[in-house]
Amino acid sequence: FLYFSEMHGISFRIQIIVKEVLDTDILLKLLFHLPVNYPSTLPDISVNSDQLTRAQCTDVKDKLLEQAKKHLAEPMVHDLILWIQQHLKDVVKQSATVCNEKTTLSKGTSTEDDIWMILLHLDHMRAKAKYVKTVEKWASDLRLTGRLMFMGKIILILLQGDRSSIKEYLILQKTSKVDVDSSRKKCREKMMSVLCETEVQSQHKRFQTFEVKEYSTLEELQKEFETAGLTTLFSEFVPPLLK
């Protein structure tokens, strides 16, 4: 997966297999977002793996960002990939040790463990009515909640739900003929970017339904994010879309 925009930079996914970590091979899925002023600015990095816990994935991400700071102002993605291939074993072992030292009081009581959130940006919708209906159906079928938000030319999709359902939604979004091109022929979505993908935190409000909403001002849109405890998410990803 590769996405490029003069406004937002470039996003791409890399999958690597690291052998013999905790007696197994680890498939590591890395998402890099390089802002337009990279490498003067650090990349955003997302780490996923079916063989690692969320805590371990977070530790891997933190270690990669630590390494990235050492390479500031110089191209670093290749070096980061080489580094994690060489050091994943140590990071995972250290993470497992820290986890074992923590109390287990919360074990089995967390209801938010599998709830994830993703924020998507769409460049346009030519066949808006059909597109909106399709998004609503996918969200309903996959039991995802959130918002499809329109503000001027900005189109955002905020989804919450099981991580597997969100992944399935992304596949549908990228592979289905959901819109029409300039010749009114059915086409796939080629101008979508993943602005953020993260686990729902305790300060985040859970959406109970999926709604389509239109906002006349940026302040109205901002209030929607603030009400959901997503002020940081808004300030980090939405204002740059206006530039």
Describe how the helices and strands are arranged:
Layout: E1 2-5, E2 9-21, E3 24-34, E4 44-48, H1 54-70, H2 77-101, E5 115-122, H3 128-141, E6 145-151, E7 154-162, H4 163-175, E8 179-180, E9 186-187, E10 192-199, E11 210-215, H5 218-227, H6 231-237
Parallel strand pairs: 6-11
Antiparallel strand pairs: 1-2, 2-3, 3-4, 5-7, 5-10, 6-7, 8-9
Helix pairs in contact: 1-2, 5-6
How would you sum up this structure, described in words?
There is one protein chain. It contains 6 helices and 11 strands. It has about 240 residues and is of the alpha+beta class. The chain has 2 domains: about 90 residues, Ubiquitin Conjugating Enzyme (Roll); about 130 residues, 2-Layer Sandwich (Alpha-Beta Plaits). It has a 5-stranded mixed beta sheet. It has a 4-stranded antiparallel beta sheet with strand order 1-2-3-4. It has a two-stranded antiparallel ribbon with strand order 8-9. Helix 1 packs across helix 2 and helix 5 runs antiparallel to helix 6. One of its GO terms (biological process) is positive regulation of protein sumoylation.
